[in-house]
Amino acid sequence: MTRRPTWRSVPLAPRLALHPRGGRSGSSVRALAGSSDWRRRLLDRFGSCIVSVAGTSALAPAPSPGWPDASWEELDDELRGTLPGLRLIGAVSPRQPGRERLSLLGHMTGNPVVVKLGRDEPGGDSGLDRELRALELLAGDPLPGIATPEPLDAGALRLADSAVDYLVTTSIALHRQRPAVDEPLRSFESDLGSRLNALSRTGTDADHDSDLVPVHGDLTPWNLRRTPRGLALFDWEAAGWGAPGSDIALYRTASDSIRRPWAKRARGRAS
């Protein structure tokens, strides 16, 4: 009996899974994982080198992503029915176990795209809806010096007998990205505020209109990345209204947590 192909595992990268017919595309999928520090980047890069040399067919089978409860064939069929011309390459599971999110890398009409799948509590504020609205606003008025993905399509589909939201965006510099640590970002808050003022507010936000400003909500070095063309900022699901300075405070704390040990010593002497 012929054994059915399954997802393929990327060595040393447990969050990544390659499509069984994904070829030698490990480095592209690795970029979606947004490695949080230099150690994880080295491990991911080593695993991707194995993929580029051996090819997907030589890799060990991987379990299906924890969510949704669907095989790669079911994902293929449903996504290609919804997004004609899409060819899947791989998947990245979220850092938080049990979170109903999945990021997929694929090609559509010859161009690389990212497909984010998600499900939120009924009546909840959908993170993918917030991300779509933020990216639409930034597509019309980009941030100076910081690229963002462009939204291509959004909607809902059915997987494992349940409704799943999806968002399709362009991809940015897939093969050459690294976390951006200690960027000055002096005008980030004002630049963002002037562009995302049209974002809707929740009931809680409405009680503090004068105190809140538009925020990215998850500004970290693994979401803000250096590329050959400059900085790029990803993962806008938490975009909304927050305390002034909260984005920059989070970014500085996250930069401190992943800075290389020798850079930490040099920074300590400089201060």
Q: Which properties best describe this structure?
A:
single chain; about 270 residues; alpha+beta; Phosphorylase Kinase, domain 1; Transferase(Phosphotransferase), domain 1; 2 domains; seven-stranded antiparallel beta sheet; four-stranded mixed beta sheet
- Which regions are unreliable across 5 or more consecutive residues at pLDDT < 50? none
Q: What does the main sheet amount to?
A: 7 strands, antiparallel
Give the overall form.
globular
Strand content: 25-35%
CATH level 1 class label of the largest domain = Alpha Beta
Q: What is the name of the CATH architecture of the largest domain?
A: 2-Layer Sandwich
Count every beta strand, where a strand is a DSSP E run of 2 or more residues.
13
What is the helix/strand order?
A: EEHHHEEEHEEEEHHEEEEHH
Radius of gyration: 19 Å
Distance between the termini: 67 Å
If helices are DSSP runs of H or I spanning 4 or more residues, what is the number of helices? 8
Provide the helix percentage.
25-40%
Number of domains: 2
Give me the side-by-side strand order of the main sheet.
Answer: 1-2-3-4-5-8-7
Mean of all residue-level pLDDT scores: 82
